[in-house]
Structures are given as structure tokens and as C-alpha cells.
């Protein structure tokens, strides 16, 4: 199997496992996440389609590293997997940091109330 395809698949699986087992941010159950993915993939089609069009490519991939499946506008399907991985990981890290900050803020307000009660 081509290297870029394998790495894309492994990264997609790793991100899903990280979310379900470690981060547990709940993004896969969020409508906001899926809407953001639709928007991101929409722009990816426009930009990636322009960059990888076979009639006049700006970015040229080694064909032996890809499955050879291209859609739409000659975009290698691996690019969508890579995009999913990159965006999903960024959102997971952002959500985890935001959740941690909220928990810390909640803990500090609880400890402030405890000190005032004494």
C-alpha cells in the first residue's frame, strides 16, 4: 500500500482513538464540529482542487505514494483524510485546553468561597 495513503489512514485512526479514549471532548457528537468540517472541506475542495488539478498541477504527488483515487477536481482522497486529521486534532486540543481552563476557574472560585467561609 502507498506510504502517503497508509500514513493518512493511521493518522485518522489515531485521532479518532485519541478523542474516544483520551481527550473525550465530545466533539464527534457536536453539530458545530460537523458543520465546521463541511465548511473546511468546502474550502479545501476549492484550494486543493486548484493546486492538484491534473491539467496544470501546482502540487505534484508521487503517484506511487497514492491510491490513485481522485475526487472532485483531481484531489487525491488522501488529502481529505489528512485535512480531517489536522483539523480534528486542532479542535480536540483547543477544546481540552478550554475545558481545563474552565475547571481551573471553577476550582479557584470554590477555594475562594471556602476561604471566605472560614
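Q: What amino acid sequence fits the structure above?
A:
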Amino acid at each position: 500500500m502507498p506510504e502517503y495513503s497508509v500514513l493518512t489512514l493511521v493518522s485518522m485512526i489515531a485521532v479518532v482513538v485519541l478523542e474516544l479514549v483520551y481527550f473525550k471532548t465530545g466533539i464527534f457528537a457536536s453539530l458545530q464540529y460537523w458543520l465546521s468540517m463541511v465548511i473546511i472541506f468546502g474550502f479545501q475542495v476549492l484550494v486543493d482542487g486548484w493546486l492538484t488539478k491534473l491539467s496544470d498541477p501546482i502540487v505534484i504527488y508521487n503517484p506511487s505514494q497514492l491510491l490513485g483515487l481522485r475526487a472532485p477536481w483531481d484531489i487525491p482522497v488522501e488529502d481529505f483524510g489528512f485535512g480531517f486529521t489536522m483539523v480534528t486534532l486542532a479542535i480536540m486540543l483547543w477544546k481540552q485546553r478550554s475545558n481545563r481552563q474552565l475547571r481551573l476557574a471553577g476550582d479557584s472560585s470554590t477555594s475562594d468561597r471556602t476561604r471566605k467561609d472560614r
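Q: And what stands out in the fold?
A: Residues 5 and 18 are 20 Å apart (CA to CA).
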